[in-house]
Write a structure and sequence with these properties.
The chain is an alpha+beta fold. 46% of the residues lie in helices and 16% in strands. The protein is built from 7 helices and 6 strands, in the order H-H-E-E-E-E-E-E-H-H-H-H-H. The chain has a 6-stranded antiparallel beta sheet with strand order 1-2-3-4-6-5, with helices on one face. Helix 2 runs parallel beside helix 3.
Length: 193
């Protein structure tokens, strides 16, 4: 147990019992406990294996390379359609975790083997992401803007494409693009300050 992570388990939350059991399962698998993204993250030789986090309706083990696991029990969930690698095992009570304890450990050990083997998730390339027509129009209007966008790192480009495309209405997409122009010229991602 890492004392720097204790505050997460000590805070008053609806998932306190579930978190404690999940922590014990991860530690039983001899992983190193760290704090990443404000959550307990369990690592093997410096690589992220599984993270504990909670939401309003459920808590979860997030397997960082869950897409590579053999999900024989069909318990792993792709959080959103845009998540390429990670998969969640979701729980709404401590009994669900208890019932799956042995299987969860098997998934953790399999995730460790994935790391030992050096396996990588085949990520979708930036050019494979849909470019909203409103962004294409802005590029046509302002070639310098297009050039600035193309100079962004692939991750920042994907972030913008997902952010723009998530808007259902054209006027919202245009607003998001307009609000992002200065950040793009500064070389920043859509959620960077």
């Amino acid at each position: 147990m890492n004392p720097k992570v204790n505050w997460f388990f000590e805070k008053d939350t609806q998932w306190q019992k579930e978190y404690a059991l999940m922590r014990q399962i991860a530690l039983d698998c001899e992983l190193i406990e760290e704090l990443k993204w404000g959550c307990p993250c369990y690592t093997y030789k410096g690589t992220n294996i599984v993270l504990i986090h909670g939401f309003k309706d459920y808590c979860a083990f997030l397997f960082h390379k869950g897409a590579l696991l053999n999900d024989s029990e069909d318990i792993l969930i792709q959080q959103t359609k845009n998540v390429q690698s990670a998969r969640q095992a979701r729980f709404t009570n401590v009994h669900e975790i208890t019932d799956l304890k042995t299987k969860l450990k098997a998934y953790i050990y399999e995730a460790i083997e994935v790391e030992k083997a050096g396996l990588k998730v085949e990520m979708k390339k930036t050019k494979e992401f849909q470019v909203p027509s409103e962004l294409v129009d802005k590029f046509d209007e302002n070639p310098d803007f297009k050039s600035a966008f193309e100079k962004l790192t692939p991750g920042r480009q994907r972030g913008y494409l997902l952010h723009f495309s998530a808007a259902k209405q054209a006027k919202t997409r245009i607003g998001r693009i307009d609000n992002s122009i200065s950040k793009i010229f500064e070389g920043k991602g859509w959620n960077e300050r």
